């Protein structure tokens, strides 16, 4: 197949890890007879330096014309002035909004080699294979915000949590479709004992599953209980679907099951096929430019890109297998390797390519 992939390497280690992702895409194209073309844009701090904005119009156009977007990371101390009007993360929020990306997917899989390095007991995390689907464009993060003085000595701040039926339906549908390709189980997480938006969420989720996905096993759990069960019985989860803020918190918790930020990919999907794929970690300024960053989260993001935007499932699985084989072979960057045995970003990238049979 032919596809155009927009590359937004961004700041810090972003360019180093995206370079390894591109090598994997080129290898997949060659081995499976596809033709991928790449177009590169600036986002985040580097875009601010060049154009005075974190999301230049040219970058938006490159993304809109592409079949998928691969992003590194944005930000760093150089642009960290909290009072600055132009900030790197505006690039990220802006591109998600422009592309209408309402579902954020974060898979967490723990192989035996990773289980032995998890902060949790290996027997608890071994076999974990879950996919968290977080609603990305609604809820309290996007509701109306105000703060004002109700008395000269008393300030009040208000955040508003808003969800509509259709916003809930589309993300629950997405989660159910994804579950069909997995173990067929969806856990919907809310706080329906307290929040009105959660009561709506639960009603809508129940109806969508009953009407459209009778083959899916749906369970509802409260977010506080979910936080506990993620540590107590993480291997029981298949697909978790939840609203924006709960998802933000639970995905960080779930990410630690696998042990390192440097391993976890994400996909953000919308109406169209063109999704945005990025590692969940940031620009890691402390290690940027040294060639030691873990490229596996980005390479696993490439696998998600192949699967969800290009529909290339066999290719996606081959990339994932090559990554896990690299981990099992102990070819690891410093975030995971025992002292003195760390390999460079490029060495780990090359080890994945070698195993991409
Ligand atoms: P971070 O994820 O960049 O780094 C946290 C720690 O993990 C650091 O010690 C870093 O060296 C390590 N780390 C991260 N990715 C790694 C990798 N691939 N391989 C090995 N080690 C890795 O988060 P931090 O330090 O809070 O933020 C740094 C900058 O990144 C800030 O400017 C922040 O705003 C930005 N950021 C950007 C994100 C994005 O672009 N999506 C997400 C999170 C933070
Ligand atoms: Mg977060």
From TrEMBL:
<comment type="subunit">
    <text>Homodimer.</text>
</comment>
<feature type="binding site">
    <location>
        <position position="106"/>
    </location>
    <ligand>
        <name>substrate</name>
    </ligand>
</feature>
<keyword id="KW-0460">Magnesium</keyword>
<protein>
    <recommendedName>
        <fullName>3-isopropylmalate dehydrogenase</fullName>
        <ecNumber>1.1.1.85</ecNumber>
    </recommendedName>
</protein>
<dbReference type="InterPro" id="IPR004429">
    <property type="entry name" value="Isopropylmalate_DH"/>
</dbReference>
<comment type="similarity">
    <text>Belongs to the isocitrate and isopropylmalate dehydrogenases family. LeuB type 1 subfamily.</text>
</comment>
<feature type="binding site">
    <location>
        <position position="224"/>
    </location>
    <ligand>
        <name>Mg(2+)</name>
    </ligand>
</feature>
<feature type="site" description="Important for catalysis">
    <location>
        <position position="141"/>
    </location>
</feature>
<keyword id="KW-0520">NAD</keyword>
<comment type="pathway">
    <text>Amino-acid biosynthesis; L-leucine biosynthesis; L-leucine from 3-methyl-2-oxobutanoate: step 3/4.</text>
</comment>
<keyword id="KW-0432">Leucine biosynthesis</keyword>
<feature type="binding site">
    <location>
        <position position="248"/>
    </location>
    <ligand>
        <name>Mg(2+)</name>
    </ligand>
</feature>
<feature type="domain" description="Isopropylmalate dehydrogenase-like">
    <location>
        <begin position="4"/>
        <end position="352"/>
    </location>
</feature>
<keyword id="KW-0464">Manganese</keyword>
<dbReference type="Pfam" id="PF00180">
    <property type="entry name" value="Iso_dh"/>
</dbReference>
<dbReference type="InterPro" id="IPR024084">
    <property type="entry name" value="IsoPropMal-DH-like_dom"/>
</dbReference>
<keyword id="KW-0963">Cytoplasm</keyword>
<keyword id="KW-0100">Branched-chain amino acid biosynthesis</keyword>
<dbReference type="GO" id="GO:0005829">
    <property type="term" value="C:cytosol"/>
</dbReference>
<keyword id="KW-0028">Amino-acid biosynthesis</keyword>
<feature type="binding site">
    <location>
        <position position="252"/>
    </location>
    <ligand>
        <name>Mg(2+)</name>
    </ligand>
</feature>
<keyword id="KW-0479">Metal-binding</keyword>
<feature type="binding site">
    <location>
        <begin position="76"/>
        <end position="89"/>
    </location>
    <ligand>
        <name>NAD(+)</name>
    </ligand>
</feature>
<dbReference type="GO" id="GO:0051287">
    <property type="term" value="F:NAD binding"/>
</dbReference>
<feature type="binding site">
    <location>
        <begin position="282"/>
        <end position="294"/>
    </location>
    <ligand>
        <name>NAD(+)</name>
    </ligand>
</feature>
<feature type="site" description="Important for catalysis">
    <location>
        <position position="191"/>
    </location>
</feature>
<dbReference type="GO" id="GO:0003862">
    <property type="term" value="F:3-isopropylmalate dehydrogenase activity"/>
</dbReference>
<feature type="binding site">
    <location>
        <position position="224"/>
    </location>
    <ligand>
        <name>substrate</name>
    </ligand>
</feature>
<dbReference type="GO" id="GO:0000287">
    <property type="term" value="F:magnesium ion binding"/>
</dbReference>
<dbReference type="GO" id="GO:0009098">
    <property type="term" value="P:L-leucine biosynthetic process"/>
</dbReference>
<comment type="function">
    <text>Catalyzes the oxidation of 3-carboxy-2-hydroxy-4-methylpentanoate (3-isopropylmalate) to 3-carboxy-4-methyl-2-oxopentanoate. The product decarboxylates to 4-methyl-2 oxopentanoate.</text>
</comment>
<keyword id="KW-0560">Oxidoreductase</keyword>
<feature type="binding site">
    <location>
        <position position="134"/>
    </location>
    <ligand>
        <name>substrate</name>
    </ligand>
</feature>
<feature type="binding site">
    <location>
        <position position="96"/>
    </location>
    <ligand>
        <name>substrate</name>
    </ligand>
</feature>
<dbReference type="InterPro" id="IPR019818">
    <property type="entry name" value="IsoCit/isopropylmalate_DH_CS"/>
</dbReference>
């Amino acid at each position: 197949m032919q596809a155009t992939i927009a590359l937004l390497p961004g700041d810090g280690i972003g360019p180093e890890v995206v370079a390894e992702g591109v090598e994997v895409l080129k290898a997949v194209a060659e081995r499976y007879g596809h033709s991928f073309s790449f177009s590169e844009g600036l986002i985040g701090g580097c875009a601010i330096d060049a154009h005075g904005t974190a999301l230049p119009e040219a970058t938006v156009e490159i993304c809109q014309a592409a079949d998928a977007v691969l992003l590194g990371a944005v930000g760093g101390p150089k642009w960290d002035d909290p009072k600055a009007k132009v900030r790197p993360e505006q690039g990220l929020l802006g591109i998600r909004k422009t592309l209408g990306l309402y579902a954020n997917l974060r898979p967490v899989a723990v192989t035996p080699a990773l289980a032995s390095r998890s902060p949790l007991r290996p027997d608890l995390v071994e076999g974990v294979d879950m996919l968290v689907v977080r609603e990305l464009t609604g809820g309290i993060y996007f509701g109306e915000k105000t703060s004002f003085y109700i008395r000269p000595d008393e300030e009040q701040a208000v955040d508003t949590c808003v969800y509509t039926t259709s916003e809930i339906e589309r993300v629950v549908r997405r989660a159910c479709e994804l579950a069909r390709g997995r173990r067929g189980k969806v856990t919907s997480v809310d706080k329906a004992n307290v929040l009105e938006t959660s009561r709506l969420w639960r009603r809508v989720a129940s109806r969508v599953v009953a009407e459209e996905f009778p083959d899916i096993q749906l369970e509802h759990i409260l977010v506080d209980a979910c936080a506990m069960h993620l540590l107590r019985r993480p291997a029981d989860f298949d697909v978790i679907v939840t609203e924006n803020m709960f998802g933000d918190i639970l995905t960080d918790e779930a990410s630690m099951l696998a042990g390192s930020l440097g391993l976890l990919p994400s996909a953000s999907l919308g109406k169209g096929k063109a999704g945005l794929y990025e590692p969940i970690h940031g620009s890691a300024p402390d290690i940027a430019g040294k060639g030691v960053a873990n490229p596996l989260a980005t390479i696993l993001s490439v696998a998600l890109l192949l699967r969800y935007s290009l529909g290339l499932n066999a290719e996606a699985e081959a990339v994932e297998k090559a990554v896990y084989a690299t981990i099992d072979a102990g070819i690891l960057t410093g975030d995971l390797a025992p002292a003195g045995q760390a390999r460079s970003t490029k060495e780990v990238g090359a080890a994945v390519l070698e195993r991409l049979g």
